[in-house]
Each structure stands twice: as structure tokens, then as C-alpha cells.
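Bumping my old thread because nobody answered last time. Still need a sequence for this structure:
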């Protein structure tokens, strides 16, 4: 059955699927069309139908597991250096396809083209970075106090399931695929049902660059059906989930029942703390980038703006004035700074939380009043003033361009407010007092913290959450611990080994 594909989208997809009849999964190098319920995806910029396709379902998930087992066996036979060279070739292929990939991401996910160009470049960087690690992350020799040689081996997990959200589809795919395959794993990636296209394109690009078929498989489908079916596959030995807290809880529970190790990268409600002694002009630009970048659809968004009382009114005014100037519009225009919200459900969620904030007594000093507007799912950058940390708008993740400005008096109070949250993904402090900056950085409970900066991330630096923002780490060398398991090997080297019962003798000598 052929499903609907918008003609602009068909053109954007041409470099990847010259003869695409429909959207399907990428399994063992083949396009596999699902037979499940129809999934309809609207264009975030217009609200009109963009494409539809059939949910992959359990049969395709089982095929992906079989393909991944075969792919992993072939991939792990390669030398580590050979895997690194292959990943360098993939990085070059991504750069060669960078513009069509960025266009496809902008059109299908509603993200500004200036953002998607940067994100595609970062995906190439991820493959380069982990290509370098492929033959450098290995076991070691342990100097045990006996006649034994004891060494460790870092072995792949085998087949890893990765489930990702819609806010940064290709970035998140590269972020998780690159470290996984550098260590010899095969991957089953289940992107959001709303944004499968660039993950599918990435798998194709990698195979055209020479990656064996079956090493990267992408399932196009719903989470509750296809995602759960993938999670139930006995071949899956680890699950890495990026998404919301409620879904993370479901995945964590299902993984625990199977005794599967998991990494959970979940949501946030990060505190961006501005002291009166900060460079306020710079901090205001930082505060806008922190929350309005990506239309606030960023897990690390600085959605709680904590401002010291003495500069509260002045600073919130600065941020509100800046918010009013942000260019919000067509994702494909190079001028656009922020695009629409990705989907209708999320659009309604963002608007309802703005209205809830106003009902709770917050003052809207810039942006949307929570009413929907015709056309696409656009929400103007919105600033809510006089928010207290007990209001819903300060506690719930909005995942939209909405900042809640909260007043504080002292450093202790700022830290207490920052930590009074179920989340713990990120945070920042703006101050010219170096000692205070480090005191605050040490005390805020979050996996990433910035001083006089916001949202800088790099593939070499670890990333992950405290509290309900998740567990386990992505990026940097930390991700390689997640994507390997360690084996300890003992070799007797004594000429005349002692016969012993219980534990071998000599370990305490
Ligand atoms: P979501 O939790 O609704 O969905 C994420 C993924 O899980 C999708 O692929 C979805 O299909 C799948 N899924 C849903 N139900 C499932 C089920 N029952 N079984 C298996 N899979 C299932 O999240 P979303 O709305 O797509 O994304 C937004 C959320 O992601 C926000 O909370 C945001 O903070 C979070 N996020 C976190 C990070 C991070 O690194 N910490 C990064 C980006 C986004």
C-alpha cells in the first residue's frame, strides 16, 4: 500500500530514496514496509499532512533483531582499527550529503535550517570522534598479588536498542549510533514515529559508505507497538532511551523485568541563575539562547530563570525585549531563528501550560497568551514574570519557548530553588564572582552545568541526568563504558601451580 508523501518532501528525500514508494523501516540493508496502523505526520510549519506510512510492528522488529545479530557478528570480526576507518568513511559520507540531510530534517521536523546544518555537521563529528576511540578503548593488565596474569577485555554488548524522540532526530541518532558501533555493537534504532526520515537516511548513508548491512537497523513505527516489540526481542542486550520521564519509566520497568541494563536520558526543568553582579547584557543573550533555541524543544532548556532581586525587573525586561525580536518563521528560510513546535499534541501542551501559568498569577511580559493561532504550530518566545517555584509552570517540563522568571535574594536561596525540582539535567550560573560560580556549580544537582555560558555541548564531554532526568551517560569516553561489558581473564603462570580448594592461594601475599 502506498501512503501519502508531500511533493516537497519527496524532492528532499530524492538523494536518499530515488524510487521510494513509501516510508518503511531499514532492516538488514532493505526497505521493509510495515503492515500496522497508519501513522500520519503533519508539517509543523503548516499543520497540513506531510507524509503517512504504516507502523512497522512486531514482525519487522523480529526481522531487525535477526539482521542485527548477523550484522554484529560480521562487524565484530573486523579489527578495531578497521571499524575506526569505516567510521571515518561514514563521517565523510555524512559531510558529502550534509545539505540534503539538513533540508530533509528542516522540512520533516520543522527545525530551522541554520540549526539542522549545524546538527548534521555535529553528527559527522561524532563519527570522527568515536572512529578515533575504536582501537583505543580496551582492557588492561591488573597487577594481582599472585602468580597469575590477570587482564580485562572490553567486549561489545551485542545488539543494542536505541529509542529516540522527535526534537533533534539526526543529532540523537548519531549521538547514540556512533559510540555503539565503534565498540562493535549492532544497533536497532527506533526513532520517534513523527521524525523517522533522517535516521533512515543516516543508515543508508552509512551502508553506502561500506558499513556491513544489519549493523544499523532503523524501525519506523509507534513506541507502544514497534518500540515494545523491539524491547521484547531476546537478541537485545541493552536499551538506551532518550525521551520523556513517563515513557522512560515504562522502558526502565520493561528493561528491569528482562534484567536488561539501560541508559535513560530524560527531561529537564533546568535552572539558569543570574546574580546581580553578572554581565547582564551577556547573561540576557545567554538566557534567550538557553530557552528559545530550538523553540525550547531542548532537554537542557533553561526554562527556569532565577534572577537576583536587585536586578530582577531590569533583567526580565531585557530578556522580554530580546524575545520580541527573535525571528520566528519558515524552517527552510536562512533568516529563521526559531521554527514551530514539532507536532499538534506538543503545541496544545505548550499553550495549556502558558494559560495555566497565567491562571496561577504569573504575568506574561512577552510572547503568547496561550491562545492557538491559525497556520502551523508556532508559539512566540514567551516570558512569564513573577513566577514562584511552587507554580505548575515552574515544575512541569514545557518543552517549548516559554521561560518562567523566578526571583531570589541570596545564593543559598538560589541553590535551594534550583534543587527543588524532580529533574536534574542541567543548569547555569551567571556571575563575575569566580568563587561563587564554583560554589554554585558544585551544589546544583545536575548532570551538566555552565558558568557564564549555556548549552555548549561537545561529543567529547559526558552528558546525562541526575534525579528523574535519568541515569547512565552519553557522549565522551563515558558512553563507551555503557556500550561495552568487561570480562576479567585469569592465566596461571607458575611453573608448579598449587592445588587449592576454595579461592586460589596467594591473593593476600
Ligand atoms: P516520548 O517519551 O514521548 O517518546 C520518545 C520515544 O519513545 C519515541 O520514539 C516514542 O515512539 C517512544 N515510545 C513512546 N512510548 C513508548 C512505549 N510504550 N514503549 C517504547 N517506546 C515508546 O518523548 P518525546 O515527546 O518524543 O520527546 C520529548 C522528551 O524527550 C522531552 O521530555 C525531552 O526532555 C526528552 N529529551 C531528553 C533528552 C536527554 O538527552 N536527556 C534529549 C532530548 C529529548
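Sorry it took so long. Here it is:
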Amino acid at each position: 500500500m502506498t501512503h501519502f508523501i508531500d511533493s516537497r518532501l519527496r524532492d528532499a528525500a530524492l538523494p536518499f530514496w530515488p524510487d521510494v514508494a513509501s516510508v518503511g523501516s531499514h532492516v538488514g540493508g532493505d526497505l521493509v514496509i510495515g503492515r500496522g496502523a497508519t501513522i500520519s505526520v503533519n508539517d509543523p510549519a503548516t499543520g497540513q499532512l506531510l507524509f503517512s506510512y504504516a507502523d512497522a510492528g512486531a514482525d519487522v522488529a523480529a526481522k531487525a533483531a535477526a539482521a542485527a545479530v548477523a550484522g554484529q557478528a560480521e562487524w565484530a570480526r573486523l579489527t578495531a582499527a578497521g571499524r575506526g576507518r569505516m567510521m571515518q568513511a561514514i563521517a565523510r559520507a555524512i559531510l558529502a550529503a550534509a545539505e540534503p540531510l539538513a533540508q530533509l530534517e528542516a522540512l520533516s521536523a520543522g527545525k530551522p535550517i541554520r540549526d539542522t546544518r549545524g546538527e548534521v555537521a555535529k553528527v559527522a563529528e561524532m563519527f570522527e570522534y568515536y572512529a578515533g576511540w575504536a582501537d583505543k578503548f580496551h582492557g588492561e593488565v591488573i597487577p594481582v598479588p599472585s602468580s597469575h596474569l590477570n587482564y580485562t577485555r572490553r567486549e561489545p554488548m551485542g545488539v543494542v536498542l536505541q529509542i529516540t524522540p522527535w526534537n533533534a532526530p539526526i543529532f540523537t541518532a548519531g549521538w547514540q549510533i556512533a559510540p555503539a558501533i565503534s565498540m562493535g555493537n549492532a544497533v536497532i534504532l527506533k526513532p520517534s514515529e513523527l521524525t523517522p526520515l533522517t535516521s533512515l537516511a543516516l543508515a543508508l548513508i552509512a551502508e553506502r559508505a561500506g558499513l556491513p548491512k544489519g549493523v544499523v537497523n532503523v524501525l519506523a513505527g509507534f513506541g507502544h507497538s514497534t518500540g515494545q516489540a523491539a524491547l521484547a526481542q531476546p537478541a537485545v542486550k541493552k536499551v538506551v532511551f532518550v525521551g520523556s520521564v513517563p515513557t522512560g519509566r515504562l522502558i526502565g520497568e520493561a528493561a528491569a523485568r528482562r534484567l536488561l541494563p539501560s541508559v535513560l536520558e530524560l527531561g529537564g526543568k533546568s535552572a539558569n541563575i543570574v546574580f546581580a553582579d553578572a554581565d547582564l547584557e551577556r547573561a540576557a543573550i545567554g538566557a534567550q539562547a538557553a530557552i528559545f533555541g530550538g523553540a525550547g524543544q531542548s532537554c537542557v532548556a533553561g526554562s527556569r530563570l532565577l534572577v537576583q532581586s536587585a536586578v530582577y525587573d531590569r533583567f526580565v525586561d531585557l530578556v522580554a525585549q530580546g524575545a520580541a525580536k527573535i525571528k520566528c518563521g519558515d524552517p527552510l528560510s536562512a533568516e529563521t531563528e526559531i521554527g514551530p513546535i514539532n507536532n499538534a499534541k506538543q503545541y496544545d501542551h505548550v499553550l495549556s501550560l502558558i494559560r495555566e501559568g497565567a491562571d496561577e498569577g504569573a504575568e506574561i511580559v512577552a510572547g503568547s497568551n496561550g491562545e492557538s493561532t491559525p497556520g502551523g504550530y508556532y508559539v512566540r518566545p514567551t516570558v512569564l514574570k513573577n513566577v514562584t517555584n511552587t507554580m505548575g509552570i515552574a515544575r512541569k517540563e514545557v518543552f517549548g519557548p516559554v521561560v518562567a522568571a523566578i526571583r531570589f535574594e541570596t545564593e543559598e536561596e538560589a541553590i535551594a530553588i534550583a534543587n527543588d525540582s524532580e529533574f536534574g539535567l542541567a543548569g547555569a550560573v551567571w556571575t563575575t564572582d569566580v568563587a561563587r560560580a564554583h560554589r554554585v556549580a558544585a551544589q546544583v544537582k545536575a548532570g551538566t552545568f555552565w558558568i557564564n555560558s549555556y548549552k555548549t555541548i561537545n561529543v567529547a564531554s559526558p552528558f546525562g541526568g541526575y534525579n528523574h532526568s535519568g541515569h547512565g551517560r552519553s557522549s565522551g569516553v563515558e558512553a563507551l563504558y555503557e556500550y561495552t561489558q568487561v570480562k576479567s581473564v585469569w592465566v596461571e603462570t607458575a611453573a608448579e601451580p598449587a592445588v587449592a580448594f576454595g579461592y586460589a592461594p596467594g591473593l593476600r601475599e
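The chain has a mean pLDDT of 96. Let me know if any region looks off to you.
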